[in-house]
Fold:
Amino acid sequence: MQRLTNKRILLGVTGSIAAYKSAELIRRLRDEGAEVQVIMTRGAEAFITALTLQAVSGHPVHLHLMDTEAEAGMGHIELARWADAILIAPTSADFMARLAQGRADDLLTAVCLAGDVPLALAPAMNNRMWRDRATQDNAKKLVGRGILLFGPDSGDQACGETGPGRMREVDLLVNDLVDMFDVGSLAGKTVLITAGPTREPIDPVRFISNHSSGKMGYAIAEAAVEAGARVILVSGPTALPVPDRVELVNVETANQMLDAVQSHMPVDLFIATAAVADYRPVQVSENKIKKQDNIMALALEKNPDILAETKAQFPGVFTIGFAAETNDLETYARNKLMNKGVEMIAANWVGSAAGENDGTFGSDNNALQLFWQDGEIELPMASKSKLARSLLAHIVPHFEDYQAKGLPKANNVVNLKDPGKPIA
Ligand code: PMT
Structure:
């Protein structure tokens, strides 16, 4: 069975002796059903010819940023759009440093900046260069930006020394890529995601709601499908198209969302991105409310906390909440982690605090800080689809650990919405 059917891999080759392995890597990727295009840096050209890589990939090799002919054929932006993933194998120490600086002074660095797809590096360098503080700092910075490192492996090196810095073997790199598309593999798992706002009616023509567009939740649903999961998307009102292969349940109010979520429980993973209205009008007027006094008061009552209640009732479900904050993001996120009893909280800035992000709500981009009991990681600004993939890539290992340790037993189940009523 070919494991990379229909996948488009953009292979970057940089200046390292391991560049000779790139031809074999391309062959193996094509054996697995992938289409491969190659970008070589000037350094790579010293180790292997473009002609060789053109012959094995079946495509002209891309070399220069300022080449008008190449830009007219498939320019760097188009190349970045073409790819489903970018793999740079081998990645030299110099290239890691340039990527860490965010440079765009050759074709490969420019494509990496323009790309909105998973980016993986297979470092290959002398073991002292790999161990050097500067390279380690660069590696940390790149991983912090959601870039994946495949290797390096340890062993005999071309320079005659032994240690970490060898490029991973070609077959292992192919396996890493397959795993990357699986986002750690959610095959056979059911993931329930809430998305969008809720609407709490005041009368037949008015409601209380918020600015959530649903984009973040829908992007996570798509990433979970890509990872092989069965995905149930419980969505408040949005203007988004239904993602492929997702079971969509449309709801309006927080109470409807709670019912829809709980009627699908238990699942393996529950990810609550919805911006649920915390309060709803005590009374919903049957008829349109007419304008009367200058000041009008609306009595509100608390909505159920879908996230906290569901986690309390289904403790075995690995649960991730979101936190939208305008200030003290970490403090509030950590409070939510504890108070709601969930495994992880993905926090984002909203409102003017979100700065360049136009307020997060409705934007195509976002940045997240992911917190768990004894750790955290920053997922930098990216399109919501890219961010969703990287979020899942970080969630899945925690989920796998959680499952390996054995699930907590079901609570003495209390229906918090209606404490007298048992949960089915
Ligand atoms: O939809 P977009 O335009 O793409 O915007 C994305 C987003 C900003 C809505 C999203 O990234 C996000 O932050 N969602 C959570 C927003 C929110 O309501 O945060 P909160 O801090 O108020 O709630 C904390 C958590 O409890 C959330 O997981 C929320 O789904 C959940 N909750 C809150 C209240 C409630 N009554 N029930 C809940 O389940």
